[in-house]
Amino acid sequence: MTETNKNVCSMVEIRDITAGAGALGLIGYGMPGVLVGLANAGLIQSGSMILSMVIFLGGFAMFTAGLMEWKKGNTYGMVAYSSYGLFWFSFAVLLLLPALGLVKDTGGAGAMASYLALWGIFTVILVIGALKMSKALVFVLGTLAIVFFLEAAGVATGTGMYTVLAGYVGIVSGFASIYTALAPVLNDIYGKTVAPLG
Fold first, then answer.
1. Which ranges of the chain does DSSP label H, i.e. alpha helix?
2. What predicted TM-score, i.e. pTM, was given to this entire model?
3. Which residues contact 158 (CB under 8 A, 6 or more apart)?
4. Inter-axis angle of helices 135-157 and 109-130, to 10 degrees?
5. Dihedrals phi, psi of 109, to nearest 5 degrees
6. Contacts of 183 (CB under 8 A, 6+ apart)
7. Does residue 137 contact residue 170 with C-beta atoms inside 8 Å?
8. How many Cβ atoms from other residues are within 10 Å of residue 128's Cβ?
9. How far is CA 65 from the centre of its chain?
10. Radius of gyration (Cα) for the chain, nearest Å?
């Protein structure tokens, strides 16, 4: 007696039902970015309020968004959000260490200018990738790159005009990031394009 084995094939569909992390990541830049811009422009005083926003919404939110993008297999989003989250953390530490007396200073004007310029170069590379995505994202990252380069120039030359100009560009860039973050949220809620991204 021969026993016949039948192979049964079944298909399993796995759906990704996790929320998009882009809005969280962009808010994580936009809101602290506006506040830092206002401080650089001399319109508000910098202090613990900005530092708290930088650490928690800038650092934690953006880094978390990067981890969420990694889970979704989005290398661009993972690198961008995680890196900027770590930027906000490093920026906060640069301010805190000298204030706590743990280090003498940030390493001088040349070191700080190099730090900011390097972030500007990183951002330009992300702009090239964003050209395949949306005009709104290109604008956010393009203006952010300008902010980094202006701040680097301000530190390197000791000219306050560059820092003030970086502040105003940062305000525009931050608000653009807030719009770019909230547009897909509103579009999703209404089921149609109410806030275009281009």
1. 22-40, 48-53, 62-72, 75-99, 109-130, 135-157, 160-190
2. 0.88
3. 109
4. 170
5. -60, -40
6. 136, 195, 196, 197
7. no
8. 10
9. 10
10. 21
Residue with tokens 């989005």: 74
Distance CA 9, CA 168 (A): 61
pLDDT digits (tens, 9 = 90+) for 150-195: 999 999 999 999 999 999 999 999 999 999 999 999 998 999 998 9
Distance between CA 131 and CA 15 in Å, rounded? Answer: 28
- DSSP code, position 58: I
CA gap 184, 196 in Å, rounded:
8
- The rounded distance, in Å, linking the Cα atoms of 128 and 141 is 10
159 near 152, Cβ under 8 Å? no
158 DSSP 8-state letter: T
Q: Please give the Cα distance from 62 to 83 (Å, whole number).
A: 8
The CA-atom distances, in angstroms, between 16 and each of 20, 57, 69, 74 are: 10, 26, 12, 13
| Cα three-residue angle 87-111-39, rounded to 5 degrees | 55
